[in-house]
Every structure is written in C-alpha cells, then in structure tokens.
From TrEMBL:
Gene3D superfamilies noted in UniProt: P-loop containing nucleotide triphosphate hydrolases
MF GO annotations: ATP binding; ATP hydrolysis activity
Taxonomic lineage of the native organism: Bacteria, Bacillati, Bacillota, Bacilli, Bacillales
Record-given protein name: Spermidine/putrescine ABC transporter ATP-binding protein
Keywords: ATP-binding, Nucleotide-binding, Transport
Originating species: Bacillus swezeyi
Length: 256
C-alpha cells in the first residue's frame, strides 16, 4: 500500500448563487520518502487538494488515506508550510519553534533540544531569543520550517513556501529544504506555479487541468536530476528539456 493515497477525490464549493467544482475524480499515489509537486493554471484546485490531504477540508466525494488512515484519524502530525511564515510576532523564535510541541503535548527536554538543534541545521545560529521582526524574510521561512519539522511530521505539505522571497534567497532555501527533507526521509507534496522549482525539487510532477482540476499529465523527473541539489539540477540539459515540455503543456492548458 502506498504511503499517501488520494482516491477519486471530487470537491465542490457551494454558495447561495452557485456551485463550483474545484476538483474532479483525482487519484494519486505517493510512496514514502517521495517528493511530488502539483503544477497547473490558477484556480485548478491545487491548494484545495493540499487542504484535503491535510484534513482541513473534507472532500465532497472520495477519500484520502495516509498509511491507511484518514488524515483526521491519525495520531501523527502533518506538517503544513505556507507562503507566509505565520510566526507569532509577540513570541521569540524559540517560543515559535516549540509551539507545535506544546500543542501536541510532546514538549520535553529531549524534543526541545532536538527542535533547537534544527535551527542550527537550518543555518540559524543564536536567534532563539530574537523576535520575528528582527529576522529577514528568508530567515523567518527557515524558522517556520524548523517549527514544522520540530513535531516530526510524517508528511510535509508545502503551499508555495518560497514565492514571496527574492530569487537568491529562494534558490538557497530550495537547496536547504531539499537536503533537509532528504536527510530526514520525509514525504513531501509541493504546490507551486514555478516549473523550475517543481523540476529541481521533485521526483514526480502532476500537471492539473483547468477548473475543475483533474490530472492532465504526470512527468517523472530523470534519475540524473534527482541525484543533484536543486541549484545543480538547474544547470543540466535534461532540466531545460523537461522545462520546455512542461511549459508547452501548461501553456496549452491556459490557452484552451
């Protein structure tokens, strides 16, 4: 059985005036330790599906299973990292990092030590007593990643976590997240509008059609690229070839 199973998921939003189907008959399987990206035109239901996987939204039809259980039935944590860092501005970085452990009642001397060690692994030194306003955007996103990983989630859901950053910081964070997830053997799902980011970080890319979102095409990232860091992968001819193929498919979807 696959680690993550999305089975025939359809989701419809209802308002007083109309109903809008965001997703239609979406089925996906992701193995443990894989990194999968969702690409597609705006409004194709990528973030809706991520919210369904997280257990925040219940699908109108179909179901999601993580290790054979529905997301809201699981004892283990699901990590969710968004475009904004959502650090509490009135709390220190240490307090922000430990908040998930507090909520899940897993905070003890050992988990606190491991969480603070994550800061160092992510290149954040001696920031425990600082407040979010004292850090740059890239540093805050690294702190947000440390907070997400501190609870040792089985799966990490990433909703355009780098899109608000400058290009240099974005490239550095791609490498950092890629290496960190590899070292912890985490399963991850990324929603992005950036074709290059999807190729550089993923094992597999799912291209969604326009609303209602369905899986239009799946692209496997070549093994030769998966062996490289995201920055290194961007320099390879195979990267450019795959980029062009995906861009053509995406452009076709947006025009039709």
């Amino acid at each position: 059985m696959s680690f993550l199973q999305v089975q025939d998921v359809t989701h419809t939003y209802f308002s007083l005036q109309e109903k809008t189907t965001a997703l239609e008959n979406v089925s996906i399987e992701v193995e443990k330790g894989q990194f999968v990206s969702f690409l597609g035109p705006s409004g194709c239901g990528k973030t809706t599906l991520l919210s369904i996987i997280a257990g925040i939204v219940s699908p109108t039809e179909g179901r999601v299973l993580i290790e054979g259980q529905k997301p809201d039935e699981r004892d283990r944590q699901i990590g969710y990292m968004l475009q904004q860092d959502y650090l509490f501005p009135w709390k220190t970085i240490e307090e922000n990092i430990l908040i998930g452990l507090h909520i899940s009642k897993k905070l003890n001397a050992e988990t606190k030590r491991a969480a603070l060690h994550l800061l160092e692994k992510l290149g954040l030194y001696q920031v425990e007593n600082k407040y979010p306003k004292e850090l740059s955007g890239g540093m805050r996103q690294r702190a947000a990643l440390a907070r997400t990983l501190a609870v040792d989630p089985d799966i990490l859901l990433l909703d355009e976590p780098f899109s608000a950053l400058d290009y240099q910081t974005k490239l550095n964070l791609e490498d950092l997240v890629f290496n960190t997830l590899n070292s912890y053997q985490k399963t991850a799902v990324l929603v992005t509008h950036d074709i290059g980011e999807a190729i550089a970080m993923s094992d597999r890319i799912l291209l969604f059609s326009k609303q209602p979102g369905t899986i239009h095409k799946t692209f496997a990232v070549p093994e030769s690229l998966k062996m490289l860091t995201p920055f290194e992968a961007r320099q390879e001819p195979e990267f450019q070839s795959l980029f062009q193929n995906i861009w053509k498919e995406l452009n076709h979807l947006e025009q039709h």
